[in-house]
């Protein structure tokens, strides 16, 4: 009984083995890599990014105005980062403005422009100017010591300038390819306002000329380039002299006639 059961069991196992397909002896390396934990994680990450990109395009198609605003903001931020000035740009701008002021007489320079530029040049020569980038803009501020100074206060990191003091030490802001404070200080750098303090109030204020005044100035400017007509003026003067002489001669003749009549 037991022997017949074992025989039937062996026959069933052999039949199942013959019916099932033969499994490969060993899987490929790529298949093992795909089925590993790292492969599963990478496939899930790629799937998530694919779904995120698809949702972005679908959302932009459904809400074009919102997508345009977001794209404009991203483009503006990218442009600000690309055009953000660096420390070399600040040095070049400072030296250029310093040379422009050096070409002017001290009596003509604007006091505010000259004082601001001279202060920046002194800090630069002392090695106390610092530049930091904040992503969309740049800041220039002054420190207490040159970085090459061997003093303990200059080399100790715990005594460096804290971030909360930077607004009070800030000298300029670089944004969109410009240094705004330096450019504003150099406005009318060739106008010395001290010269006009003694003038009355109405003479110190300038007003925008009207259209008639501009046209009159342009007309006078064009007439100043015209050649002078000297011959016509000389002819007019000679005619006037001749007329005066004729009138004098006629008066003299009349007087002589009157004298003859009186004598007769």
Set down the secondary structure blueprint.
Elements: H1 2-19, H2 29-35, H3 37-62, H4 64-82, H5 87-102, H6 111-125, E1 129-133, E2 138-142, H7 152-155, H8 166-169, E3 170-175, E4 178-179, H9 180-185, H10 201-204, H11 211-224, H12 230-263
Antiparallel strand pairs: 1-2, 2-3, 3-4
Helix pairs in contact: 3-4, 5-6
Structure summary:
The chain is of the alpha+beta class and 264 residues long. The protein contains 12 helices and 4 strands; from the N terminus they run ααααααββααββαααα.
Spans of at least 5 consecutive residues with low confidence? 19-26
Helix percentage range: 55-70%
Largest sheet report: 4 strands, antiparallel
Strand content: 5-15%
Question: What does the overall shape look like?
Answer: elongated
- Averaging pLDDT over every residue, what do you get? 76
**How large is the radius of gyration?**
47 Å
The sequence of SSEs as H and E is: HHHHHHEEHHEEHHHH
- How many β-strands, per DSSP? 4
**What structural class do helix, strand and pairing data support?**
alpha+beta
Give the neighbour order of strands across the main sheet.
Answer: 1-2-3-4
N-to-C terminal Cα separation, in Å?
200 Å
| Alpha plus pi helix count | 12
């Amino acid at each position: 009984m037991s022997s017949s059961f074992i025989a039937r069991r062996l026959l069933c196992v052999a039949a199942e083995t013959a019916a099932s397909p033969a499994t490969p002896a060993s899987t490929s390396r790529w298949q093992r890599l795909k089925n590993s934990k790292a492969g599963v994680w990478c496939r899930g990450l790629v799937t998530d990014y694919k779904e995120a990109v698809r949702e972005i395009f679908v959302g932009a198609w459904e809400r074009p105005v919102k997508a345009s605003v977001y794209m404009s903001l991203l483009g503006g931020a990218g442009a600000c980062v690309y055009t953000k000035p660096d420390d070399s740009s600040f040095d070049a701008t400072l030296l250029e403005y310093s040379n422009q002021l050096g070409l002017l007489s001290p009596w003509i320079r604007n006091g505010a422009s000259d004082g601001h530029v001279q202060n920046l040049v002194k800090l630069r020569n002392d090695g106390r100017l610092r530049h930091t980038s904040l992503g969309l803009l740049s800041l220039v501020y002054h420190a207490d010591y040159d970085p090459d100074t061997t003093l303990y206060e200059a080399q100790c990191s715990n005594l460096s300038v804290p971030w909360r003091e930077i607004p009070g030490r800030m000298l300029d802001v670089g944004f969109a390819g410009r240094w705004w404070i330096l450019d504003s200080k150099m406005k009318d750098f060739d106008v010395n306002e001290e010269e006009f303090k003694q003038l009355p109030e109405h003479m110190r204020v300038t007003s925008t000329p009207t259209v008639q005044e501009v046209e009159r100035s342009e007309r006078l400017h064009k007439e100043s380039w015209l050649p002078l007509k000297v011959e016509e003026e000389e002819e007019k003067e000679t005619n006037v002299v001749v007329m005066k002489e004729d009138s004098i001669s006629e008066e003299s003749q009349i007087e002589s006639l009157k004298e003859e009549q009186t004598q007769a």
